[in-house]
Amino acid sequence: MSTSAMDVHHDHAANVLADPTAYADDARLHAALTHLRANEPVVWVDNPPYRPFWAVTRHADIMAIERDNNLFVSGPRPLLMPAEGDDVMKQQQDAGIGLRTLIHMDDPHHRDVRKIGADWFRPKAMRDLKVRVDELAKRYVDKMRDIGPECDFVTDIAVNYPLYVILSLLGLPEDDFPRMLKLTQEMFGGDDTEHKRGEGSTEDLLAVLMDFFAYFSALTASRREQPTDDLASAIANGTINGEPMSDMDTVSYYVIVASAGHDTTKDAISGGLRALIDNPDQLARLQNDPSLMGTAVEEMIRWTTPVKEFMRTATAATEIRGVPIAEGDSVYLAYVSANRDEEVFTDPFHFDVGRDPNKHLAFGYGVHFCLGAALARMEMNSLFTELLPRLDSIELAGEPELSATTFVGGLKHLPIRYSLR
């Protein structure tokens, strides 16, 4: 970090961005972000155990940074971690053994690796997958009916439905789904007392990653020996410039698809249902006019913003909104803030199933735009299209709980009481 803490003003409201518990408290988080957008939209954050960084909270500035992916790169700090985690990740990557997913990479390598799985998320592939997605949506709405009149929507429905979709796309056996679920919760839940492994230390997180690597290394060997018609085979046999991907890039590809591919969708689905419960006028509006489902899904995604941030590193001295940024400085892209930006969204704290346009940044922007965005949208559309016509009544049956995180997260419990046909 080349900017000295002596050189800059500190707005302590920005400390929420480096506090996992803040993401489990919507009111506290959004009060701080609203203050920052109005008063210091590019702000210095120095809150140990995290290394300092610049936080960017305005939609337009985040888009400009994402657009200039040569000036602002993902490496070496693609997401916010405690300093110890940054150091271990760097040591591992220097040794060629660290997790290196699409979010860690920059072009041209990022572009080449992304191409390997891209065809599986294009419109034709989505149309082919829709039958399976609709079938799973009906299965899980039927399950809601069968276990009603109460359930924890997160643990009973939202966590399993997108997991089954993404692992079906990969071609993994259903017997392995519970293992993938637990590993994903442990990977994204390192800051959360309920989901973290052990003490949630760097060593515990590394153990989770090693379990992922062991599973997916065996899968790679199997798919190279006997290729099948699934995404796992496409990844295992993918090449770059005629050469097979490295073992680390191959395993990392599986990890990001299997984990981010379902956990973020779980957050958007469960948070979307809570928003409908909290806004019964919007629920009734959507039930009465199913043609709004497309805009409703986008609003659920904006409202929940499952990926809270990515980090970028400046490759040269520059400035953002007139604030000097030194070469080597880390920049935090606050997607949660961008998606409530008053300069972009009319009445941003109003949940509106008909919001149009809806230029949210929940899938990122530019070269790192989410590879699985179309799949997430389709899964949500299928589930709510199945659920809402069969729903006679719904209300909270307890207090919803959000996970503590600084990266990916949302509801971990949503107790509901309902009547379902």
From TrEMBL:
InterPro entries reported in the protein's UniProt record: Cyt_P450, Cyt_P450_B, Cyt_P450_CS, Cyt_P450_sf
Pathway(s) per entry: Steroid metabolism; cholesterol degradation
Family: Belongs to the cytochrome P450 family.
GO terms (BP aspect): cholesterol catabolic process
Originating species: Mycolicibacterium vanbaalenii (Mycobacterium vanbaalenii)
GO molecular function, one term: iron ion binding
Pfam families: p450
PANTHER family: BIOTIN BIOSYNTHESIS CYTOCHROME P450, P450, PUTATIVE (EUROFUNG)-RELATED
TM helices/strands, residue ranges: none
Keyword Lipid metabolism: yes
Alphabetical keyword list: Cholesterol metabolism, Heme, Iron, Lipid degradation, Lipid metabolism, Metal-binding, Monooxygenase, Oxidoreductase, Steroid metabolism, Sterol metabolism
Cofactor: heme
Stated name of the protein: Steroid C26-monooxygenase
Higher taxonomy: Bacteria, Bacillati, Actinomycetota, Actinomycetes, Mycobacteriales
